[in-house]
Amino acid sequence: MNVRTHMSMLFHLDKCIGCHTCSVACKNLWTDREGTEYMWWNNVETRPGTGYPTGWEDQQFYQGGWRYDGRGGLSLRLHNKTQGLTRLFFNPALPDLKDYYEPFTFRYGDLFTAPEGDDQPTARPVSMITGEPMEIETGPNWDDDLSGSDVYARNDPSLEGLSEQVRAQLEEIEGVVFNYLPRICNHCLNPACVAACPSGAIYKRGEDGVVLVNENKCKAWRMCVAACPYKKVYYNWSTGKSEKCILCFPRLETGQAPACAHSCVGRIRYMGVLLYDADRIPEAAMVDDHDLVETQLEAILDPFDPEVIAAAKKNGVTDDWIKAAQDSPVYKFVKEWRLALPLHPEFRTMAMMFYIPPLSPVMSVVEDRALNLALDTSGPEFELFADLTKARLPVRYLANLFSAGNEGIIEGVLKRLLAVRIFKRAESVDGGLNDATRAALDEVGLTPETAEAIYRLTTQPTLDERFVIPPYHREASIEAWNDPLERKGQEGFGYIQPPVRGE
Amino acid sequence: MKDWIKELESPAERKWEEFYRNRHQHDKRVRTTHGVNCTGSCSWEVYVKDGIVTWELQATDYPLLEEGLPPYEPRGCQRGISYSWYLYSPIRVKYPFARGALVDLWREAKKQHADPVEAWAAIQSDPEKRRRYQQARGKGGFRRITWEEALEIVAASTVHTIKKYGPDRVVGFSPIPAMSQVSYAAGSRFLSHLGGTILSFYDWYCDLPPASPEIFGEQTDVNESADWYNSRFIAVMGSNLNMTRTPDTHFISEVRHAGAKLTVFSPDFSQVAKYADWWVPTNPGQDGAFWMAVDHVLLKEYYADRETPEFNHYLKTYSDAPFLVEVRDGRPYRYLRAAELEGYADVEHNEWKLLVWDRERGPSMPQGSIGYRWAEKEKGKWNLEMKDGKTGAPIEPELSFLERHDEVQQLAFDDFAGERTLQRGVPVRHVQTRRGRVTVATVFDLLMAQFGVGRGLPGEYPEGYDDPQPYTPAWQEAYTGIHRDTVLRFARAWAENGLKTGGKNLIIIGAGVNHWYHNNLMYRAGIVGLMLTGAVGKNGGGLAHYVGQEKVANQASWGSIAFALDWGMPPRHQNTPSFHYVHTDQWRYERGSKDYDKTPGANEHHTIDHQIRAVKRGWLPFFPQFNRNSLELAREAEAAGARSEAEIVGYVVEKLKKGELKFAVEDPDAPENWPRVWFIWRGNAIGTSMKGHEFMLRHYLGTHSNAVAQEWAKDEVHEVAFREPAPEGKFDLVVDLNFRMDTSALYSDLVLPAASWYEKHDLNTTDMHTFVNPMQPAVPPVWESKPDWEIYSLFAKKVAELARTHLPEPVKDVVMLPLQHDTPDELAQTEVRDWWKGEVEAVPGKTMPKFRVVERRYTEIYERMASLGPALEKNGVAAHGLKIPVAEEYRALKEHQPRKSEVLGGVFPALEDGRQVAEAILRLDPVTNGEVAYRAFLEEEKKTGLKLADLGEKNRSVRITFDAIVAQPRRQLTTPTWSAILNDGRAYSPFTLNVERLVPWRTLTGRMHFYLDHEGYLAWGEHLPTYKPRPDVTMLLETEVTEKEAKGRLMNYITPHGKWSIHSTYSENHRMMTLSRGGYPIWLNDKDAAELGIRDNDWVELYNDNGVFVQRAITSARIPRGTVFVYHATERTVGIPKSPLRKKRAGMNNSITRARLKPVLMNGGYAQFTYFFNYWGPTGVNRDTWVFVRRVDRPEY
């Protein structure tokens, strides 16, 4: 057992508003400068939809992530080592401007300076690259709130395997639906970007698992951009270096949640430590699609298990980090309650950010030219519990996103969410649990105590309960190369110059 | 471990990480917020590095409410977090700018005339010169000028207008004070001292829900968002919470996990629909029909088929359901009055005390009616105790006469959709009155008949749910498109939830309903469903109306300062819907409401005629008030011998009676009746909010316009002077205070750089939560910008300076006021009688407007603005008819921030800067001063005779100062100036004070009203909750001209709130433009689009007779067919091409709408139908609009 610590974020998609406050928080802090205009380390996608960059999940096209040969062999989809060398100067799988967008702005100043004319002046759209007038054809969130679209939603790669009938319903009032998918770098356990970098510039931090591109070592090969199946590494055209989500490590190191999580006004994000067994990574990534979620969860360790604690200590994990792992809301949702899943486990990078799949409204049917809820009127309070096929978001679709197609896992999660609602309704409206309520809890394997705990962490958490940030002990890290007392006087004067193109 | 997992722990190599650490470091964090027109009131921390604002993140230190409620943190959305872009952006107004053509004329005039007022007069007296700069409005040519020159133009035009036309021709518009109370007050206080006209906003924005004053006698009072969490069944209608209440939405997602059911009514699959258990896509504008059918089911199953004691008790105690209505001529008529009965003949205000049927004693007069509220003799009986106001005997009111009645009469009930009258049997009783035998029914029995619940009575009642008669589940299908089974399922679940939880049924409702012409009826239908399930006044229940309803929590103290009541002067408050409808000449382009509003009898009169009558009867304000200068009029009265205020008023009334003096509203196009100088601040009056924007461009500004509508009114009007041609360019000067070059700024004559929300001191409150938040400078005002308070102070100084020459002496001003809500004026008129026809004596304040004579001292205007006036010490502060003494606080404030004034001769509390104003507001108001709250309860005890002061006892020592709210958001206190009990962390739910402590609602009966018996309501067929069909395109006369050139399809045009802006603010912000589509897209159903040959991102033109709008399309099945969506409040500044049809720059979202007033909402002088600013009056509806839609090739810029 090789116990390591990881900072993981959890997204409760049932609570996501789709507001993009997270995206702007990130942009303000990190990517509001030349060369980073088109970078959205954090973005939010409307699903079904094609996301950013367009169709990023389509690995036939983008060649990201890993390929498993079914016999114990795992290789980058992009290339093997030899191919990598031969393709250094030719990387056909890189997204280009049309897959991202041409950053645009407006000639706002014309409103002040336009001479008097015979019509009202306007601020024309112009390219941030050329400065020339342009037509805006696409953007980083182009299909926002755009369900039921034959241009975007229909081309969502994760609709694969849905019947024609179900697909057609998604474009009609009876079945139209959307939800949101916020995305940051997954800080994977098996990161393809790290493996693909010819310069060895990308590394995963030992203390918290944050994957970083060393801006001093990056040599602009951009293999990381191609290899990342989530398209979360971006190339800065100004500095000639790649950049990516850093999980706001300067904030983590000072006990603060990442800016995207801090600013999440839907309160959907949680942050905490997971302990994992690094020895299990290869085997966890090399199983059939159907089992990927299970093997990844097995690699995540129980922080209360004395053996795990002992092994962790042996690896240098301090008591306060073990305590943080025990208090981690992410651990509870992911492992204890089995409510949260990694995004596209079939990419086999072992994403370490987790998602709770969302509920959706009941479908409708047209009867006598009037729209009727597709309900069995004798059913329980929350009808979907009895029949998930009536949910507007197809289970199969969610399975394609979060469980490599394993629908049973999704059904289990959704029914547990519904069972908690049934439980709380009985308690607060009907004056206590009745037989039907108990049966619902039993069916999904929840006790009233667990249901209550899920309810509380879902609805009531304070800032400190959502974000359990362990103490980083920066003084101890700095001590490895400098006397902290000296450092105290030197902080902020800087050791490095900003990255320079070609260096 | 495999070698592909690299970990790097080499400390030296990781030194580079400080690249990002250094970026994250900052010098300062400052708490402030965004004074944007939203209800967020979010506490933010602004990060400053190197004297530059770099970014903002939410503060997270809100105190927790009671146990079990989720925390409020973090509050703040995608818009707010984008704000820092604006500070240094190229759209920031950094210096004063002026229209070049005007600057040239001004400098030339100044060479001729050393006196600025004379220079201004010279320009205005030359029609050519006026035309020269007016036609240049909005067409570029701005020039940077100095502050000094700008101030001189402002002051010269103001003084000139006061002298020549009167102060009420100087008008100001600024919306929603709550978002930056001090900044609003800056302009309103300046205008109040001036005698200028202050334009309302809540009604104009169509955010005021008239159903609220109709039913509750309350402007709007709503649950704070944490209270949603107490609900167990939520119906969201026409409210896209994700978009408009972004920081509150988590309570919705969370309460579902607490076991609540959520139904979302919305024609499109909206952002909030994703949370729903049931999404019910009613056809646009048909929510009322759905609720009428729900109410039918509730009445049938919970009141007729069985008795539900909980619900019955609720109706008897808190609603007018048991009150007696006289039946006359086969129709429900007016409430029976106590005055009619011999036994109550000697009772004070007995015309205003109503009756119920006591089980034993028959007609009885319970306490709580409005007559008790304004009692002069019998005080202390204004409460909801069900006992006889005369004898004190307990009353057991009968809800229904079904079991015991004298006869069953067939009464007429209007079916407006079916265009017929239904005869339905109603059990009635006879009452012996002083004028003979009278037949009465209970409101409850009328309600049963109206909703078609037969109970075995004869008449045209539906046979069952499947009989498509009003208002069954089968009936509503034709309107809503929703199956009857869904109605039934919903209604039963709604009722059961209400029963089991004691009324935790919540309707969250918004602009998607409130912007329709018949919004009051749709709201009433929903509120009936709440009242029938005992939900109003319960935590987690009631009507949560969220449309621009921002709440000035400190209303009592703020109102005194904002409207200069501390100097004892009544402000000129104008309802903006009437103002713009009349002055922009939109009335000329229609035949009036008869085309699109249905009434039981004939409705022959043009809306403008209703408007004029409403003003003359004292129902609505109107400014300019007379066709004469109100200063001159006073002078003339004094010259004619008038000595006192009463004599001056008498002189004016005589003149009016003789017709020697006219109301300006009777001849609005006469030059002497035009408004002349317009101040716009904190809002986008020319852009965003101007329904009929293109008419405004023509008639107000005198510049280009894309309107092609023809005039229709000439032969339809009776009371208004119709002048030809209609005037263009009424305004002499438009001044805009702004931090950005928005549409209003682009069309103004002067654009003055305003300090933004990160650069000034201010206060910010909302009703979405109960905290008070500060604004404070993170950096000083950038470039040459200044806080609004400072700008208006400079205006005042300059006006005072010019006044020393032009208005050196104190002058008297005759101020006209309508009959006022929350005053004894509520008892003014029991009947509608016109003094000018001789039907009744002209009595100011009774049968006509009130007049006050005010002394103005223009040379002292700055001194008074900057000093808190002595009237406050004497009169106290007031809200909702409650006067609260604050003399001690006034004196304490004088110690704390003294200001000595030589001119005024004394020491006063200083109001020289924003911080001082904020401190005064906090100090003097009950929500932030526990002692004032306690005293307010003592006053309320006197009025009601109830024990209430215990609610304030615990908090007597609390003083929330500016420093306190800078340190942490602080929660407001429980006060009788609002209607909820907040103690011990309880979430704000409106009317809990009424329900738990028996304080009456501010209505005729003191209860919530199902029935509205004003003559105007009877004439309009809206005395009972009802359904009226949506105005249809053929009724609206706004596609008559374009029809001839039309190439496209006619579709309903809907403008809900958008995701990437708060109204127009942020909409052109680079962050938001990038995350959206870089424009203001037109949403179309995919199949409609395909039929029109429109593909996603194609350019599309929307047009009608009002104007034109050109943007790119988004096509999606989530949009209902036949409807086109544009998220509202677009700017016409950024990325707007020319219209291929009209060849000129295309407009904004309100280029294709226009204002239509609903006359029934003009009623006044009667209980809850009595005017108050932003409280009552017709609203600026804009949903009932039709446009042609067509694809266009890539247009030109």
From TrEMBL, chain A:
Its main location: other. InterPro entries: 4Fe4S_Fe-S-bd (IPR017896), Nitr_red_bet_C (IPR029263), Nitr_red_bet_C_sf (IPR038262), NO3_Rdtase_bsu (IPR006547). Its cofactor is [3Fe-4S] cluster; [4Fe-4S] cluster. GO terms for molecular function: 4 iron, 4 sulfur cluster binding; electron transfer activity; metal ion binding; nitrate reductase activity. It is found in: Cell envelope. GO terms for cellular component: cell envelope; membrane; nitrate reductase complex. Coiled coil: none annotated. Keywords: 4Fe-4S, Electron transport, Iron, Iron-sulfur, Metal-binding, Repeat, Transport. Residues 7-36, 174-207, 209-238 form the 4Fe-4S ferredoxin-type domain. SUPFAM superfamilies: 4Fe-4S ferredoxins. Pfam families: Fer4_11, Nitr_red_bet_C. One of its GO terms (biological process) is anaerobic respiration. This is Nitrate reductase subunit beta. It comes from Oceanithermus desulfurans NBRC 100063.
TrEMBL record, chain B:
The keyword Protein biosynthesis does not apply. Its EC number is 1.7.5.1. The keyword Iron-sulfur applies. It catalyses: nitrate + a quinol = a quinone + nitrite + H2O. It is found in: Cell membrane. GO terms for molecular function: 4 iron, 4 sulfur cluster binding; metal ion binding; molybdopterin cofactor binding; nitrate reductase (quinone) activity. Its main location: membrane. It holds the Pfam family Molydop_binding. GO terms for cellular component: nitrate reductase complex; plasma membrane. Residues 27-91 form the 4Fe-4S Mo/W bis-MGD-type domain. It is a peripheral membrane protein. PROSITE patterns: 4FE4S_MOW_BIS_MGD (PS51669), MOLYBDOPTERIN_PROK_1 (PS00551). GO terms for biological process: nitrate metabolic process. NCBIfam families: narG (TIGR01580). This is nitrate reductase (quinone). It comes from Oceanithermus desulfurans NBRC 100063. The lineage of its organism: Bacteria, Thermotogati, Deinococcota, Deinococci, Thermales.
